Each structure stands twice: as C-alpha cells, then as structure tokens.
Amino acid sequence: MEISLSMRGQIESLRLQYGRITASHAFATLYIWREDMGLSVCLEDHLYAVKCRWRGENTWFFPCGKREAVCRFIGEQMKTPGLGLCYMGEADVELLEKEFPGAFRISEAENDHEYLYDCAEQRALEGKRFAAIRNHIRRAKTDHVLECELLSRENLAEAMEVNRQWVSRSSGQPDLSILADRPGGVPPDHMAPANLREGMLEDGAASETLLREWDALGSFGVLIRADGEPHAVAAGYPLSADTYDLCLAKQRFTLPGLGAYTKHAFFCALPESVAFVNAEEDLGIEGLRRMKRQMRPSRMLKMHEAGLR
C-alpha cells in the first residue's frame, strides 16, 4: 500500500507498542522518504512492514509488530527470491536466528547505525570533549548577529526557501555541515531511482515534505537569522516521550560556525523532558561520519541487515 498521512496513528501506535524507537521505522521518516526510496507498507492489525525498492524488489525494513505476526510475514516473504531485511536491531537479529536458524546471512550494517546524543550534554557543552564545538559557536556569534526562532506557520515559508537555496547551491552534493541526510547506503545503480544514481541519497525533496506537512507530522525545529536574514534551519520530530529525531539541518550557504550554532540551538529549544536526539545514520560518508563523531554521541543504535541464504 502507498504510505499516506491517514496511517500515521496506526503505524506510530504499533511502533511504540513494540518498542521500536529507531528513526528508521518512524512514520514521519517513512512518509517523507516514500517516493525517493520507493517505500510502500504492508499494514495489519498487529504488524507493519515497509518495502524498500531502493535496496531491492524484495527488500524490507525488519517488520515491527507482534512476534507471531513478524515470523509469519518473514516466512511468507521467504517464498519469493531475493529476500532482504534491513534496519534490524539486536533484538531482531536474535529473533531471526532463533526462529529461522541458518536461513539468513546476517551482517552488521555500519552505515545504518544511528547516532544518539544526550541533550543535557549537548546543551551544556562542558569539558574538553566539546571544546571544538564551543569554538565554532563562538566564531559564529563573533562574526554575525544571530537570532533563533521556533519554526511555526509564520516562518515556515522562510525555512522552505532556506532549504531550496541549499538544494540549488549543492547541486546534489552532500553538505557535510548537516547532521542527518537519510536512511540507506549507496544502492546498486540499477536499483536506484533516477535522482539517486549519483551515489548519494539527496534529501532536498524529503526536507521540503517535512516542512510542507509540518503540523500533520508533529514536527519541531528552529530558524536561525544571521544579520537579519533567514539563513539556517534545523528540524525533526518526536520518536518517543524522551527522544526526538533531527533529520534536517541546512544553511543557505556555509558560514563558519553556523552549523554548530544551529544544531546547538535545536538542542536548547527542545522541551526539557527530551533527553536524547537521534541524528540518524552517516550513510558511510567519511566526512559526515567524522562530523557526527566529533559531536560526541552518547551511544550508537546498531543496525544489521540480512539476506536469505
């Protein structure tokens, strides 16, 4: 089935009921990436499973739901050649090995690991671990007059323009000043939609969707004005009661230190009840991986993938 906004309540209820806290399975993630990643969903009373054409015609995010329903679904898909499973947590690996012993080749998918940041640490930025980030922020504040606003219907149009200008200047190249592009590694060329064939999953359209469906997706974010002009945006959505996703961080053009300032502003603007931010994966891009690690994640949510033997 095509992923639609009307599914949000049911998918999120299943995700939280069965403890799926990763960004990969969140409804907002699926919705904003449904076209570029070729996503569709099998949605039942006790299960949802997401097909990902970007990774193969019979490749699925590991199903989320009641154990019996998950096993039944996987068993049915094993009848079709080329079954692949991705975005698998540790518990998913254990289930697969116990219920289908020897049937799958399972490997760690480092490019899919999600970075989890402690909000208290990121707000305070204390100690030597965060010295470089403090210096970047100080540089931005010295060079420019910066103002932070919560994103709302009043300034969403300006945020969209920031995103469009980023897309225009980047011409599809990765902006390593951001925290989170989107799920997946680099697919074989023949599997990729036309807009993905340069070896990079572009997120301009997904970011536009996030901003366009702001209220429907329960999104949250900040707009940064530099010298009076809207210049940067950071945004995401809730994953659980104490964890938010950060999937969008863009600048019209790069100003030294502004990326660090914008992400710090996002952390500081979140409700006090939010303890963690999930900045998603690094896509295997060395510069993006280095930058995310330099931000000092509190831990990684490790992912695995599996193929039928």
Q: Which SSEs are present, and which pair or pack?
A:
Layout lengths: L7 H10 L9 H6 L6 E6 L2 E6 L6 E3 L2 E2 L1 H11 L6 E5 L1 H10 L4 E5 L5 E5 H6 L6 H13 L2 E5 L5 H15 L33 H9 L7 E7 L2 E12 L2 E9 L6 H12 L6 E3 L7 H9 L4 E3 L2 E5 L1
Parallel strand pairs: 3-5, 11-12
Antiparallel strand pairs: 1-2, 2-4, 5-14, 6-14, 7-12, 7-13, 8-9, 9-10, 10-11
Helix pairs in contact: 6-9, 7-8
How does this structure look, described?
By secondary structure, the chain is of the alpha+beta class. Helices cover 33% and strands 25% of the residues. Strands 8-9-10-11-12-7-13 form a 7-stranded mixed beta sheet. The protein has a 4-stranded mixed beta sheet with strand order 3-5-14-6, covered by helices on one side. α6 packs across α9 and α7 packs antiparallel against α8. It starts with 7 loop residues before the first helix and ends with a strand. About 9% of the residues have low confidence.
Main sheet: strand order: 8-9-10-11-12-7-13
Distance between the termini: 28 Å
Mean pLDDT figure: 89
Instruction: Compute the number of helices.
Output: 10
Strand % is 15-25%
Helical/strand content category: alpha+beta
Query: Which sequence of SSEs, written as H and E, runs from N to C?
Result: HHEEEEHEHEEHHEHHEEEHEHEE
Number of strands: 14
Taking all Cα atoms into account, the compactness measure Rg is 19 Å
Assign a percent range to the helix content. Answer: 25-40%
Largest sheet: 7 strands, mixed
Which term fits the overall shape? globular
* Poorly predicted parts: 172-199
